[in-house]
């Protein structure tokens, strides 16, 4: 779990981390979130003389944002947890926002990260799986049923590897960090090898690694071109563990996407700027939105200009809890007058 107190400009005033405790069961995870958020708020009151005014929490799985319910998360083992209400009660009735971890991460990347200033963007983190966040004019689209952005389950190899979702040939079975790790471990004969090892082998010119890497890049390009054909984003932001390979990924990926487009406008394809704190930052932005301040980065966005700054402050503008696919994080909003 990652937590933060943040100021109105998105600046981090305090950060903390702790284990999710999912090995002790779903009730323990929920209790851990509530305790962590309460401790964070108490710290803010003691350190800054006033407690946080709002909170945001970002969790994985299926989220009912309207009703504040964490509907289902396979990794955390919970179902229908009224997380917004539970946090509100624990934090003395302050407003609480609940969001999906990838969408909140995308919100942060869009407002204060790599997509800052873009009116339309697509954020795609490549981690254990692959998901996406569709950014439109400073907000992230959830969809009619909360499933918008599930790009990892676009079928790119019909009849291919079975996916836990029930389909075969889904993008995340070929281009996620875990898929590359598995493919490279099999190719090199080392069961402990992972995607980072594959990237290093690519850089050294290993033919087996180059083949594994190119297969992943081609699958990813197929999925991304499908997405950009449907969404027409101005900026395409790639994050997650696989993106840490830098130009070892981005150079062939840009080439592969460019070869596949025909009538489509090629978006700017950039690495994410906020790293693993994006979800925590996004949760804080949700909290600031509840306060009506809009938080950082909410001025009317315009078209992204070439050469625009692609860096941004990390984490939340209000108290926040951010997550990755295996963790959960609460965030609280600090008083607007507090600055670092």
| Major sheet summary line | 6 strands, mixed
Report the C-alpha radius of gyration, rounded: 20 Å
Q: Unreliable runs, pLDDT <50, ≥5 residues? A: 299-317, 322-340
Q: Could you tell me how far the N terminus lies from the C terminus, measured between alpha carbons in angstroms?
A: 23 Å
H/E element sequence? EEHEEEEHEHEEEHHHHEHEHEE
- Class inferred from helices and paired strands: alpha/beta
Mean pLDDT: 85
Number of strands: 14
Portion in helices: 25-40%
Overall spatial form: globular
Estimated share of beta-strand residues: 15-25%
Specify the number of helices.
Answer: 9
Please describe the topology of this protein.
Elements: E1 2-6, E2 12-17, H1 26-48, E3 54-59, E4 62-64, E5 69-73, E6 78-81, H2 83-90, E7 96-100, H3 101-112, E8 120-125, E9 133-136, E10 139-141, H4 172-175, H5 177-188, H6 195-203, H7 207-231, E11 235-239, H8 247-260, E12 268-271, H9 278-291, E13 319-322, E14 329-333
Helix pairs in contact: 1-2, 3-9, 5-6, 5-7, 6-7, 7-8
């Amino acid at each position: 779990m990652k937590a933060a107190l943040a100021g109105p400009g998105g600046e981090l005033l305090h950060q903390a981390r702790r284990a999710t405790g999912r090995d002790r069961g779903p009730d323990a995870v929920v209790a851990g979130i509530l305790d962590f958020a309460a401790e964070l708020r108490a710290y803010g009151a003691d350190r800054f003389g006033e407690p946080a005014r709002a909170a945001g929490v970002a969790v994985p799985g299926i989220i009912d944002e309207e009703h504040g319910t964490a509907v289902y998360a396979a990794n955390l083992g919970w179902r229908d947890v009224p997380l917004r209400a539970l946090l509100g009660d624990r934090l003395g009735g302050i407003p609480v926002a609940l969001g999906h971890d990838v969408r909140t991460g995308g919100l942060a990347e869009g407002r204060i990260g790599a997509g800052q200033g873009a009116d339309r963007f697509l954020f795609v983190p490549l981690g254990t799986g692959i998901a996406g966040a569709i950014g439109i004019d400073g907000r992230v689209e959830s969809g009619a049923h909360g499933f918008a952005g599930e790009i990892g389950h676009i079928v790119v190899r019909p009849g291919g590897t079975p996916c836990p979702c029930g389909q075969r040939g889904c993008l995340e079975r070929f281009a996620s960090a875990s898929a590359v790790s598995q493919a490279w471990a099999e190719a090199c004969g080392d069961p402990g090898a992972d995607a980072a090892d594959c990237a290093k082998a690519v850089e050294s010119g290993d033919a087996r690694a180059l083949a594994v890497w190119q297969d992943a890049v081609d699958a990813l390009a197929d999925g991304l071109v499908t997405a950009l054909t449907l969404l027409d984003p101005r900026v395409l932001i790639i994050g997650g563990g696989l993106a840490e390979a830098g130009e070892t990924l981005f150079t062939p990926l840009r080439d592969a996407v460019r070869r596949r487009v025909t009538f489509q406008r090629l978006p700017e394809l950039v690495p994410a700027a906020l790293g693993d704190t994006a979800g925590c930052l996004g949760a804080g932005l949700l909290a600031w939105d509840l306060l009506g301040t809009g938080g950082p980065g909410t001025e009317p966005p315009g078209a992204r200009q070439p050469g625009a700054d692609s860096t941004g402050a990390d984490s939340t503008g209000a108290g926040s809890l951010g997550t990755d696919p295996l963790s959960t994080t609460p965030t609280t909003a600090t008083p607007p007058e507090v600055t670092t």
